[in-house]
């Protein structure tokens, strides 16, 4: 049952299958054939086929036995979900709604607009959410059950060593240079005079718009400093409960009546005027114009002096780098996730090609353990800041080994141990659940038979 080791993250694609599958796709699949049953829950063949079509649509690679893998995952997900219900694991309606909002936002961003998503799905946003709500709840219940099963699993140094020694020498991966890099960021603040000038500028834009001297789309394209929306006339679809939005921006948007334009309001990004285009409950289409008050060399120099003094405190041992980042950094993620740059998997070892060009240039002058002097830079949102950079460690290109890669090997060993715990749990729980698989599906996927040993088929 090695397949269990691949199922530590239950991610059955029922959201995209039931909610966002294209209408023309649905016409090409058998929509009413039951592929499997777990307890009182069914899995349709159309679910499996549409899940795979969705992977292809997103540019993912589909293995030859994709239908079998997705079916296997779906069956195990149902078992986990049903057991979570028996154990009364908490999954609140608010958690489900937040997950739905996040998924909707993801697809809107991918497709460019709410209208494009609704056109692809052949249904409204509300219908998409209604169709997907039960599936999202099932996914969250399954994930909660999975966490409960493996939450007590720990790994010892001896187990890590034994795991590593079992890997064939010719199968050990080769790692390019990786770095651990942390930073403390300060964004210089404009003077009060400049802020007042920006506010007056925004009030003038508001008057022009209300007097119909210029249309919103043209003005947004010409003057807005939000690179994410200016080419779309400043337009966004917003959801009141979504946490990724600046709270001041969001509350102002929902206080503004349909068709009206707000007074200038300050968020963490700068000053906005916001037009409410249309609203439906806690969802709205808005347009905005962003202006960022410019900072002068004086403010930049003040930020450089501030960070250089913090650097001196760290080097002198008065405060640790992490504590200084928590206390002084303007990078909000540093306060919750730590000050180190993370890779695509969330780890702190990053290849050099993931770093910005300004960072790469700084590394030429740093050795592991060094902290740079404060340097101005431009972040991913094209916002000017000042930062100090700590090169925590740097690896040379090498074959995986215990000395250089202990944390990675430890994580791999832990995942294997969790997989075995899941495998043991599933084996013990299978007799407690009625599981039926369509004979044609079972014939095509012989690995599914282990889930129905001793049970009758269709």
What does this structure look like?
- A hairpin with a 2-residue loop joins strand 7 and strand 8 (283-291).
- The model is unreliable at 1-17 and 21-31 (pLDDT under 50).
- This protein is an alpha+beta fold.
- It has three domains: 2-153 and 410-451, Triger factor/SurA peptide-binding fold; 175-189 and 296-398, Chitinase A, domain 3 (Roll), CATH 3.10.50.40; 192-291, Chitinase A, domain 3, CATH 3.10.50.40.
- It is 48% helix and 15% strand.
- Please indicate the count of domains: 3
* Order of strands across the main sheet: 9-4-11-10
CATH topology assignment of the largest domain: Triger factor/SurA peptide-binding fold
Cα-atom radius of gyration: 27 Å
Task: Describe the secondary structure blueprint for this structure.
Elements: H1 14-20, H2 23-26, E1 34-38, E2 41-44, H3 45-57, H4 66-86, H5 93-111, H6 114-121, H7 125-150, H8 157-166, E3 174-175, E4 178-186, H9 192-210, H10 216-223, E5 235-239, H11 247-255, E6 265-266, E7 271-280, E8 283-291, H12 297-315, H13 321-328, H14 332-337, E9 350-351, H15 357-363, E10 375-378, E11 384-394, E12 398-399, H16 402-429, E13 435-437, H17 439-444
Antiparallel strand pairs: 1-2, 1-13, 3-12, 4-9, 4-11, 5-8, 6-7, 7-8, 10-11
Defining key terms:
458 residues; alpha+beta; Triger factor/SurA peptide-binding fold; Chitinase A, domain 3; 3 domains; 4-stranded antiparallel beta sheet; 17 helices; 13 strands; disordered N terminus
Q: Can you summarize this structure?
A:
The protein is of the alpha+beta class and 458 residues long. It has three domains: 2-153 and 410-451, Triger factor/SurA peptide-binding fold (Orthogonal Bundle); 175-189 and 296-398, Chitinase A, domain 3 (Roll); 192-291, Chitinase A, domain 3.
